[in-house]
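Milestone M4 deliverable, item 7.
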Amino acid sequence: MSWLLMVAFFFIPALVFGTIWQLFPSPDEPPRWRTFLAARLERVAARLRRERKPDYDPFMALRVQERLGIVADHVRSLELDPHTFARAERIIASQLAYDQLLAEACHLAGVEVQVVAKGDPAERFREEVELASRGWAW
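Output delivered:
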């Protein structure tokens, strides 16, 4: 019985004091009730918000089409000129730039871009066909 009284005498006040101490924030963090309430309100606000579709800019699509044409012409001219210095590296770099532009065009046209290795000709062809079927020309 004396052990029980000693435990109750020392630990119960420590538990009460620790619980009360948790209510006071440290200087570095906001109060817990405030972060809890903010998280709850953010969930409610997320449910109430309407998703807005991003505004479609036709001039952005036109700009990407123009850039695709320029880079495609550059790749063709590099492939036809056998005397270009560091020709293979230039072709690879130009094709990677072309792939990036294709991915941007696919994003604008709503075509899904699959995750594949960089410079994959099969994925490049698929993206070109999908864009051409949606009316894109470059």
